[in-house]
Write a structure and sequence with these properties.
Largest sheet: none
CATH topology of the largest domain: Rna Polymerase Sigma Factor, Chain: A
Radius of gyration: 18 Å
Distance between the termini: 40 Å
Structural class: mainly alpha
Helix content: over 70%
Number of helices: 10
CATH architecture of the largest domain: Orthogonal Bundle
Strand content: under 5%
Number of strands: 0
């Protein structure tokens, strides 16, 4: 017998999380774990690390929920930023970079195989369709900055374009994507 997933409206979920209600924690996981995992995995590209970061994300959401301000944006957007920031912090950490450099050859073959055969489905949150409406130069910057964790400076260097151009294209991409949510 499988457990029924808990679904709450955004307002009910916010209230349950503010009150530190156990039902809120369960609903949070049931409703958002697959979407947040997809975002985290897209950044770190390592299954076990993504699972650990997903847990860290839920703990951080739970412990710092008082800092969520519904007047500044939707709950999902805030949670995505928490997950994204934790993931980017992880891949920028010295520990992560050293770990990647120190993989033994046997393990490296397995990691490469996992990365090629594992597919993340951004369709779950509908991001893939929305990004298709962007111009190619906007898509490439969005991919580097939001999904790979590059800074604007790193994206400019990677693409061989001025920093101002990166920022302008990013702003235009975000403006285009916002139209779909308003």
């Amino acid at each position: 017998m499988s457990k029924q997933k808990i679904t709450l409206s955004e307002n009910e979920l916010i209230l349950a999380l503010r009150e530190k209600n156990k039902l809120g924690a369960e609903a949070l996981y049931d409703m958002y774990s697959s979407s947040l995992y997809g975002i985290i995995y897209r950044i770190v590209q390592h299954e076990e690390m993504a699972e650990d970061l997903l847990q860290d994300t839920f703990v951080k959401i739970w412990n710092s929920f008082s800092s969520y301000d519904s007047t500044k944006g939707r709950l999902f957007t805030w949670m995505v930023n928490v997950a994204r920031n934790l993931s980017i912090d992880k891949i920028r950490s010295k520990d992560f970079r050293n770990n990647i450099k120190n993989q033994d050859i046997e393990n490296t073959v397995n990691i490469i195989d996992e990365q090629r055969s594992t597919a993340i489905n951004p369709d779950i949150v509908g991001v893939k369709e929305l990004v298709q409406h962007l111009k190619p130069e906007q898509k490439s910057i969005l991919d580097l900055v939001y999904f790979r964790g590059y800074t604007h400076v790193e994206a400019a260097e990677e693409l061989g374009i001025p920093l101002g151009t990166v920022k302008t294209r990013m702003r235009m991409a975000i403006t285009t994507l916002r139209k779909f949510f308003n």
